[in-house]
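In this notebook, the sequence line spells out the residues, with the fold written below as integer tokens. This is how one looks.
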Amino acid sequence: MANLGQPKNTIEIIQKYQFVFSKKYGQNFLIDTHVLDKIIAAASITDQDCVLEIGPGIGTMTQCLAEHAKTVIAVEIDRALIPILEDTLGGYPNVTVIHGDILKTDVCALTKQYNAGNPIKVVANLPYYITTPIIMGLFDNHVPLESLTVMVQKEVANRMQAAPGTKDYGALSLAVQYYATPYLVANVPPNCFMPRPRVGSAVIRLTRHTEPPVQVADEKLLFQLIRASFHERRKLLSNGLYNSPELSFTKEEILQAYNIAGLPEKVRGETLSLEQFAALSNAFVLN
């Protein structure tokens, strides 16, 4: 089978099937073998691994994954790509292609079916418009994961690994770091894709924590507090918490929780670490 990481082979497949790129699905196919090699290496794929690929496109990365992994499950939303994938992946008996929307797919059921419920590795060139819902959906639904190695918009990768007090730090930083350790693998310029995206991209690996780095009595409350604190980013944290539609604390209860957590009255959410948010969350439960 022709190496789809080579631009001329990608063009041949696209012309053969008269494929039209969909803006709706945010399709940008990778056409750089060096980047593919970096992704496979960063994901540490072995012949013992079950890999979930989200959005395989024409099967460029799927072919590479199939050559290294025990099993590959590729979930593709665009029906027009299914016959192409049957062609490009026909020589790989360890690949299963599923036509479906990953946001509506029971990934936990797939792990049971294809990997006896053991942790899987996720590898994907994610559509940029739904990157966060996909990643957080996997984490929030407690899918058994070992790691996610994904191509995302560069600014999103920066947000995932940002530290407190920096301009990129926000709710996504805290949510990702609660579940995983982020590691920036490589920046990827637009000319590595067809068609070229208007933004820079990055490969980031998220290694799932076996246990969260902080212990909280109420995980749901923790994330409500985080969302509320960044809803009005430049304002005092107390205002964000008081005005949040998700929370119903009085100003007195907020200040009381501050005292228990050891936070100053005029603190802003963007300066708090995950550990401080956890302390505040637990303070509200104790309060």
